[in-house]
Write a structure and sequence with these properties.
The complex is a heterodimer.
Chain A: H1 2-23, H2 29-39, H3 58-72, H4 77-88, H5 103-125
Chain B: H1 2-25, H2 28-33, E1 38-39, E2 61-67, H3 72-86, E3 90-96, H4 100-110, E4 117-120, H5 124-129, E5 136-141, E6 144-150, H6 155-172
Parallel strand pairs in B: 2-3, 3-4
Antiparallel strand pairs in B: 1-6, 2-5, 5-6
The chains are: A mainly alpha, B alpha/beta.
Amino acid sequence: MKAFIFTCSVLLCTSSFMQAEELYSFDDPRKEKRFYSLISEIRCPKCTSGSIASSDVPVSRDLKQRVYELIQSGSSNAEIKNYVKQRFGASSDYKPAFEGANYILWLGPFIFLGLMITLFFLRRRL
Amino acid sequence: MNRVFSLLLILLPVLILIIYGKILLTSQEDVTALYDPKPIPQFQLLTLQGQEILPTEFDGISLLNVWASWCITCLVEHPFLTKLSQNNINLIGLNYKDSKSNAQQWLKKRGDPYKFSIHDPRGDLAFDLGVTGAPETFLVANQEIIGHIQGELNQEKWESIFVPLIRSIEAQNP
């Protein structure tokens, strides 16, 4: 009986691993690295917070599949991000571009810190 | 002078909090209302009845509603959509990731408020539109999408988001 349960468990585990591998198979390890990096940089449009890599909602699955297809067809990272941005908006990128209203996001904390340090030293001098 | 610095030390963090708070507290509805107009993506899909769809179907003002027979919220918004279609709103359905028979049965059972429904079983057109699930509704003016609502379309959202957009379009093209 124990042997039977053990065999069943092994079969179940290996079959799920095989299925997982079949989902996104790459012939080039660089493409695979790019895929996993990209899906962790694209925001899940249906979730409060989280990338499509950590989400299994249908739209994230579609996005992962499309990213996979685009990588396989030779699209660059910038082209893929732009493709997603055109459909799901600028907020789809977890790393917002250094432009326009995003300056406040990137520079805000540094400006604030600089002001605080300046004020601190000016106050000490007086 | 010391007082000025003390005041600045208090005011600056408050100012930063106000700026970031305003960004964070902007409601999602306001964000979706500020939709960047874009043309309807090209597609090669048929209606649920198997007929071809001409781009001219999207001339004038129309609503493109994403729905599916498996979608519970679609059932909730169905009476409001029926009301809109009775008020001569050009309502076009986008049947999303659904089987043709289930979709047709659903419409037969609950009533069909749509002029026609585009059958998108793989969700290809929906993906190009940036659909994240069902239901969602796009406001289309002369083949260009000018507004987008995620989730249930109801009287409140209709009046606060779509009606002002329709009025602005009508004012531009009297």
